[in-house]
């Protein structure tokens, strides 16, 4: 199926990522990998494979030669799927599951564990992600959310499932390494452009996505420069039921008291999200001598998310006997009558986030000696603002609710309350509130690696890595109770047709909301509660209960030996080593008691010894068996380590961190096989086992804290804890096959299918957070001549997402169907059509309590997206 170079140029014009190389170029390599051997690149006129098939062939080559258990997607493969960001591209990989927010992939889990390190060329890219639900400080982690990074900036995506001692620690599930292209890897000047229009069904918006890539070399090929960029804009709609939980309540009847799990809050919400994503990546390389290459590169990513939200909330009372005529199923009250508090609101929220990564790398290779020095600075910022105007009912409102046999619970209001009449709301508790959150993440890292290969083929390697990580969060919040007349210009009626139109059910669809503006809310709230410190970062009142200043310094070193040989006549390659990491952290927060705030410093320190070993047996040229054993760790997220306490008066929730958290440690083993049935076809499988100690999860309780809430209302507390140990065991299997044995044109068909089984259990017998027991992907392929097509379906079943009063709450199963078609118009231009989330009801995110799906906590429905794009490559 190979084609000569001119035809190759025509085929490659259809590539979805503009980082694909010219017809004589190979994909970029990670900085931690050996430099690309020029002799391995195809010469002019050589028969090579392109398109989808060529992408899969290159990915198979990288997987075959990898020194560890690893899966790879090359640039061609990413671009051939309708994937807006890196997280969505990775969902096709065996053993990878993703979470979605606002209809787009945000974070990944590997083999059931969400503790995954994300790197760019082995470096940390810091930043935040947009989230649907509070707590907002949950965004603060140790790497950028994958939804903030355009996928077109990378030439290869690597999912490392077993570690090497030479690679940075920090992922229980594994490491995702995003590999950028480097200019000296290209033999020819390459320029490519793509213009795309994306239509979102419910938002009825047709918006642009533009990408570009250019690279060239000069001074006899010793200096290379590369620049890539992408801009995307998308307006989307999310329809949701949110923020409920089922908590214990006492019921007394006939002198007997029982405890029943009872809903807390029924909140119906509609989000309109305006999101733009900008990414830029550049590199300059200088071959000082044939042995010594210097690389300077930079990456910039900006995700600006603005949203408008309307919600109608009905909060149940918290005392004894909150529900009459209660219907109990599976230990939960799922229907009944009650008197609740009604709140409606309009909210605008903007959270521009930016990520920066600057690096300098020098690599020297001579004979068997390799010296590599790498230093980088990574930075992430956020400036989140929230403006909200709330309305609250004059008195308790009678209501009848029912969770049975409906998508989201029904709610029928009684009494004299009219949700569309302003007279039903009381100004004394209506509020104008302005929030601001300023966040900074920054990391300085330097490392030095040395390796020496003996004449016998044995390589000794050693290295040291020092990291200085700093994070700061400053929150501000001012509010005021305005007059009735003052709010009237901002009233906004929500009518039947506009509120949650795609979710069936009987619940309030017409009610009075508000239309806040930034200028009014910010100015009015600031005037009522100004910041007494004119030198502070905001003129709003400091909300010090959310503030922290975090510093973490890590010194790590490793020793590793690798080589090859034969055992019982079977060739093998192996590596073994140990990594030692010492971590010191300090975090400053405020302890708030009443009106008094006291600065408190918490410290922690620990040292970890992490051994690892990998061996691969080449049983035949095409059949490989890998065995690996290792220990890995995952440091707690920064937000989890900050003991600051955040009280959300709207949701009556209290969240905070815990500086005494120990890093979870996973002792793991893998046995895998790879059978390469063709240059682009393979069958693979693996057995894996992980024993995790000091696992971290949020623990939810209830109680009253008069210092936080003088009204004495029941609050829901959520803090991270080391909840004990856990074990994960499972297997994965995959097949990647083109049907070359069929007659033309049927020989253009192919399939990618994979399945992962992860069985997890903690020391209390509960499954681990975010671990789905079953997940799989099915991708149908066709590529023949100028035409290509894919249909991709992925599925994951339920998983725990938190614990409430010691009981697990779950996120339900979900699936998604996407499709893509491409046609090469000529050698330089190609057309692509894409459709994403074709069955929205199947991809909806829903969460429920321990009683099962009938005890619904939240439901979020996203929309379909369609796109058409034109590509040009020269």
Automatic annotation (TrEMBL):
Compartment(s): Cell outer membrane
Signal sequence range: 1-30
InterPro entries reported for this sequence: Beta-barrel_TonB (IPR000531), Beta-barrel_TonB_sf (IPR036942), Plug_dom (IPR012910), Plug_dom_sf (IPR037066), TonB-dep_rcpt-like (IPR039426), TonB_rcpt_bac (IPR010104)
GO cellular component labels: cell outer membrane
Domain TonB-dependent receptor plug: 63-174
UniProt cross-references to PROSITE patterns, sorted A to Z: TONB_DEPENDENT_REC_3 (PS52016)
Membrane topology term: Multi-pass membrane protein
Keywords: Cell outer membrane, Membrane, Receptor, Signal, TonB box, Transmembrane, Transmembrane beta strand, Transport
Top-rank taxon, per record: Bacteria
Keyword Repressor: no
CDD domains, sorted: ligand_gated_channel
Domain TonB-dependent receptor-like beta-barrel: start-end pairs: 414-838
Family to which this protein belongs: Belongs to the TonB-dependent receptor family.
PANTHER family in alphabetical order: PLUG DOMAIN-CONTAINING PROTEIN (PTHR40980), TONB-DEPENDENT RECEPTOR-LIKE BETA-BARREL DOMAIN-CONTAINING PROTEIN (PTHR40980:SF3)
NCBIfam families, per the entry: TonB-Xanth-Caul (TIGR01782)
Protein name: TonB-dependent receptor
Organism: Sphingomonas gilva
């Amino acid at each position: 199926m190979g084609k000569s170079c001119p035809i190759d140029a025509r085929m490659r014009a259809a590539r979805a990522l503009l980082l694909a190389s010219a017809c004589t170029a190979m994909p970029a390599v990670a900085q931690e990998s050996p430099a690309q051997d020029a002799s391995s690149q195809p010469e002019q006129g050589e028969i090579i494979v392109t398109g989808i098939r060529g992408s899969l062939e290159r990915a198979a080559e990288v997987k075959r030669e990898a020194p560890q258990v690893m899966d790879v997607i090359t640039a061609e493969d990413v671009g051939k799927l309708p994937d807006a960001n890196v997280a969505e591209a990775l969902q096709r990989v065996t053993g990878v599951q993703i979470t979605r927010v606002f209809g787009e992939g945000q974070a990944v889990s590997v083999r059931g564990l969400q503790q995954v390190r994300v790197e760019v060329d082995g470096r940390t890219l810091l930043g935040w992600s947009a989230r649907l639900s509070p707590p907002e400080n949950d965004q603060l982690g140790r790497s950028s959310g994958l939804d903030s990074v355009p996928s077109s900036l990378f030439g290869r995506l690597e999912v490392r499932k077993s570690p090497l001692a030479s690679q940075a620690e920090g992922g229980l599930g594994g490491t995702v390494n995003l590999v950028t292209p480097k200019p000296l890897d290209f033999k020819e000047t390459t320029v490519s452009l793509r213009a795309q229009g994306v239509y979102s069904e419910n938002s009825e918006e047709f918006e642009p996505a533009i990408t570009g890539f250019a690279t060239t070399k000069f001074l006899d090929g010793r200096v290379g420069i590369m620049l890539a960029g992408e801009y995307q804009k998308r307006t989307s709609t999310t329809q949701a039921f949110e923020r409920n939980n089922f908590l214990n309540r006492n019921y007394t009847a006939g002198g007997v008291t029982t405890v029943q799990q009872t809903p807390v809050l029924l909140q119906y919400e509609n989000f309109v999200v305006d999101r733009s994503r900008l990414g830029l990546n550049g590199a300059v390389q200088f071959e000082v001598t044939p042995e010594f290459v210097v690389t300077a590169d930079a990456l910039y990513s900006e995700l600006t998310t603005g949203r408008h939200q309307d919600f109608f909330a009905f909060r149940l009372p918290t005392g004894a006997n909150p529900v009459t005529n209660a219907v109990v199923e599976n230990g939960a009250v799922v229907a009944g009558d009650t008197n609740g508090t009604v709140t409606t609101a309009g909210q605008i929220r903007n959270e521009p986030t930016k990520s920066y990564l600057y690096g300098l790398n020098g690599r020297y290779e001579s004979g068997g000696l390799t010296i590599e020095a790498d230093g980088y600075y990574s930075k992430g910022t956020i400036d989140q603002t929230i403006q909200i105007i709330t309305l609250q009912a004059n008195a308790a409102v009678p209501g009848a609710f029912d969770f049975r046999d409906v998508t989201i619970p029904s709610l029928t209001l009684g009494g004299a309350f009219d949700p569309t009449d302003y007279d039903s709301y009381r100004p004394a508790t209506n509020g104008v509130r302005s929030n601001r959150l300023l966040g900074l993440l920054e990391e300085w890292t330097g490392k030095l690696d040395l390796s020496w290969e003996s004449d016998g083929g044995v390589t000794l390697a050693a290295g040291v890595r020092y990291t200085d990580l700093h994070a700061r969060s400053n929150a501000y919040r001012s509010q005021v109770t305005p007059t009735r007349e003052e709010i009237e210009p901002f009233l906004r009626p929500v009518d039947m047709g506009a509120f949650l139109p795609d979710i069936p059910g009987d619940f309030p669809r017409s009610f009075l909301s508000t239309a806040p503006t930034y200028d009014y809310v910010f100015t009015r709230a600031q005037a009522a509660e100004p910041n007494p410190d004119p030198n502070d970062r905001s003129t709003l009142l400091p909300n010090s209960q959310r503030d922290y200043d975090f510093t973490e310094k890590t010194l790590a070193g490793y020793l590793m030996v690798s080589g090859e040989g034969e055992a019982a006549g079977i060739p093998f390659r192996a590596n073994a080593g140990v990594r030692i990491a010492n971590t010191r952290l300090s975090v400053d927060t405020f302890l708030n008691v009443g009106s008094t705030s006291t600065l408190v410093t918490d410290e922690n320190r620990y040292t970890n010894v992490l051994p690892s070993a990998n061996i691969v047996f080449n049983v035949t040229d095409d059949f490989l068996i890998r065995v690996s054993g290792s220990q890995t760790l995952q440091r707690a997220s920064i937000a989890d380590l900050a003991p600051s306490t955040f009280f959300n008066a709207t949701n009556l929730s209290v969240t905070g961190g815990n500086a005494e958290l120990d890093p979870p440690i996973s002792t793991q083993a893998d046995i895998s096989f790879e059978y390469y049935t063709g240059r682009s076809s393979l069958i693979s499988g693996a057995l894996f086992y992980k024993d995790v100690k000091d696992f971290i999860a949020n623990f939810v309780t209830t109680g009253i804290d008069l210092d936080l809430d003088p009204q004495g209302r029941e609050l829901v507390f959520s803090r991270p804890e080391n909840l004990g140990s856990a074990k994960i065991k499972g297997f994965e299997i995959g097949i990647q096959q083109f049907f070359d044995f069929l007659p033309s044109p049927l020989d253009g068909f192919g399939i990618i299918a994979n399945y992962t089984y992860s069985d997890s259990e903690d020391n209390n017998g509960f499954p681990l957070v975010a671990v789905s027991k079953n997940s799989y992907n099915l991708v149908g392929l066709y590529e023949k001549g100028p035409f290509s097509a894919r249909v991709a379906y992925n599925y994951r079943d339920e998983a725990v997402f938190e614990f409430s009063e010691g009981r697990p709450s779950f996120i339900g199963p979900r699936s998604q169907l996407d499709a893509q078609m491409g046609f090469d118009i000529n050698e330089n231009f190609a057309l692509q059509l894409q459709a994403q989330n074709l069955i929205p009801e199947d991809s909806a995110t829903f969460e429920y309590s321990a009683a099962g799906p009938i005890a619904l906590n939240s439901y979020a429905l996203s929309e379909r997206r369609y796109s058409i794009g034109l590509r040009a490559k020269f």
